[in-house]
Structure formats: C-alpha cells, structure tokens
Amino acid sequence: MTNDLRELVDIPTGPGAPEGIARTRDWFAQRLVKLGARVELFQGDQRPAWLGADAADPAPATLLARGPVKPTRRVLLAGHLDTVHPVTSAFRTFSIHGDRALGPGVVDMKGGLVLGLHALEVLTQLGAAPAWGFVLNGDEETGSFCSDHALRQIAGQFDVGLALEPAMANGGLVTHRPGSGQFLIEVRGRAAHVGRDFASGVSAVNALATCITRVAALADAPRGIIASVGPISGGHATNVVPDLARAWGNIRFPTPQIGQELAAKLQDLASPEAPDTTLAQGHAHIRVEVILNRPAKPLTPSTQALAALAQSVAADVGLTLPLGTTGGVCDGNNLQAAGLACIDTLGVMGGGLHTTDEWADLATLSARGTLLAIVMLRASAT
Ligand SMILES: [Zn+2]
Predict the structure, then answer these.
(1) What pLDDT, on the 0 to 100 scale, is given for residue 54?
(2) How many helices and strands in the chain, by DSSP H and E?
(3) Over the stretch 151-175, which tens digit does the pLDDT of each residue have?
(4) Distance, CA 125 to ligand 1 centroid (Å)?
(5) Residue 156 near residue 133 (C-beta atoms within 8 A)
(6) Mean pLDDT confidence for 139-145
(7) Ligand 1 centre and the CA of 329: distance in Å?
C-alpha cells in the first residue's frame, strides 16, 4: 500500500494538472480491470461560467469500474483523484518520517483510494468480493460541478455507498453533513467622472455593499446556517463611479429546505426588471446566480444502520469509530441525495488536510484497509 501511495502522490493532480488526473484515472482503470472490472467513462459537464476562474479549467471525466456480477447487494466505493495542491506548489513529493507519510493528497484522499483498491484486490484473491463498483471523479475539491450528473446516475445502480474521505482526527466517522451552495451577485451601474459628473453616475459598488450586508445577516451559525461573502471586486479607478461590481460567496445549510429558503432569499436581491429599465430609474441592476451543488446530507435510518455496522466491524478489528459531524461537504452528499445510503470517512487517518503539512498515518493503514474490506463484505450481505 505504501508503494502505491508513493506512486500516486508523486503524480500531481491539483489545479493545473489535468494530465495528472487523466494518468491517475488510467492507473486505477488498469488495476481494476485486472480484477475483472468493466470500466466506463462519463464525460465531465462544464462548470457554470459565472463561477469565475474555475470555468477555464477543463472538465475532467468520471471513471466507473464495475466488478463481476454477484448475487449480493451492490457496494459502491467513491473517491476523488484531485487534490487542492496546485501543480506549481513546492509541496509535491511523497516522503516518510517515522510513522507518517507526507505529500500532496496523501490523506485527502490518495490514501483512501489505495485502501479501496487493496480491499478489492484482497477480497477478489479470497474469492469473497461482493458486487462492487468504484467511482473516481476529478473535481471533488472544486465542488463536483463536472461530475454531479455522473455521480447521480451511478448512485442509482448501487445499494450501499462508501466514500473514502479521510477519517476524522480521532478516527471517527461522519454520519451527517450540511449542504453547500455557491452564489454570484453581479451589479451593473452607470460610470461617470467623479469630479465633473458625479450625480449622473450610479455606483455598482454602493449597491453591492447593501447586498453584502443583507447576505451577511442571513447567517445563523448556531442553527448551522452559514452565509459567507468573498471574493469581491468592483470599480477600476478612484475617479470613476464604478459601473460593475461582483461578489461571490458560499452558503451552508443543515437541511434541503433551509437550503431552498436561503437560495430564495439570495434571489430576492435580484432586480425584477431588465438592466436598461432599472438604470433608467436611477438604480443599479442586480443579477443573482445561485447553485446548491452539495445537497444537505441529513442522518437517515439507512445511514445510521450503515454507521452501526461499520462500528461493529471496527470493534472486531481493534479500532474505535466514534460518530460525529463536520461543516465540510463531499461527494457523499451528492450520492445520498440521489438515494444511496452512504458513509463517507472510511479513508485513512492523518491530518493537515488542504495544507502543506498534509500527512497520513502509516501505522493504521493496514487496519483501516481491513476495516474497509470487512465493511464492504458485511454491507453487501445485509
Ligand atoms: Zn477529499
């Protein structure tokens, strides 16, 4: 497992490395085909253009490898090939320091991908593999806009979902997560010379500032409702009344209903009329885009049962698996929203996620692989 992890971490798959994602996808396809899998590629959808810089990145394809047909419940392993570490980062190679492996994506989530692969290889060697699938996308860290359709389509073909995100710091399992959405507020005003013609200008920046205070007021952190604004941009010179201003932001919400309510409140900021009409009335024109790309993942009875099953396996292999939650979101959100019961922190233990101190605990690698393999087996039988 350590050798595979080294090989995978040394292939950059962060922003600016689409060829690394493709190469890693092929690497997994080759290994999984040896287990008798059929592989299928789902072309990536384009990200919404209004999301900004991300829109320029290519849309990576999603791989589904499907194991031989078996008369069991069908277990889907889910993982992402991408990391957050840009290809230009100085943090780019795998290294070992005592029990720790360091490197970009070593815990989030190349370690998890290695566990998934080895669990399938061992179960196949033992002749014990249930019906399985392994889905690998390449844009989880940027919101799974390109792979969401594929994930939803694939979710319907399986009975149990196990996502290979890193374990919580205490080894624990996340059973429920908030949903998350992205938004853009784009304001068009009328430019004017600040000194000569101030009164005829309509400031896009002033109108955006009003919108921002209204968005900030939507947040209610104790209820799990988050509304964060940033980045923002507006104007280009101090002596021009700014005619364009934009703010992007992120909302998080505990239930699908609250997500819809937040989206509606954001849409309420938008001007009801066309830009020309609004400006003729002396007001800036406000356009709002919202996408709820991560549905909330509430605790359901089937997820709860799956978590209990994982806890009993953990006890059998000498691990503890406390249950918890996090403000983070992942593909488990999308899979569960598509109807697949799903637990999503069955990857490796470690820390420093999304930092240049990212590490994985090599001492627990084999126990976590054993845990995953037996969870797969038992979940396929219940
Ligand atoms: Zn991850």
Answers:
(1) 56
(2) 10, 18
(3) 999 999 999 999 999 999 999 999 9
(4) 28
(5) no
(6) 94
(7) 9
HSE-CB for 48 with a 13 A CA cutoff: 14
Please give the domain boundaries of the chain with CATH numbers for all domains. Answer: 2-177+297-381 (3.40.630.10), 179-294 (3.30.70.360)
Reduced to 3 states (helix: H, G, I; strand: E, B; else coil), residue 241 is strand
Q: State the DSSP string of 75-109.
A: EEEEEE---SS-TT-S--S-EEETTEEESTTIIII
365: left (phi over 0), alpha (psi -120 to 50) or beta: alpha
Q: Are 167 and 348 in contact (CB under 8 A)?
A: yes
Query: Residue 86 Cα, ligand 1 centroid: separation in angstroms?
Result: 15
257 CA to middle of ligand 1, Å?
26
pLDDT digits (tens, 9 = 90+) for 79-120: 999 999 999 999 999 999 999 999 999 999 999 999 999 999
- 282 CA distance to ligand 1 middle (Å): 47
Give the pLDDT confidence score for residue 326 in this predicted structure: 87
Q: Which pair of tokens denotes residue 144?
A: 């799974």
- Summarize pLDDT for 55-83 with one digit per residue, the tens: 557 899 999 999 999 999 999 999 999 99
**Beta-sheet strand order (sheet of 179-188):** 226-234, 244-253, 179-188, 285-294
- What are the CA-CA distances from residue 360 to residues 43, 103, 215, 340, 353 (Å)? 31, 9, 38, 28, 10
Q: How far does the centroid of ligand 1 lie from the alpha carbon of residue 113, in Å?
A: 10
CA of 341 to the centre of ligand 1 (A): 19
Which pair of structure tokens corresponds to residue 58? 């290519």
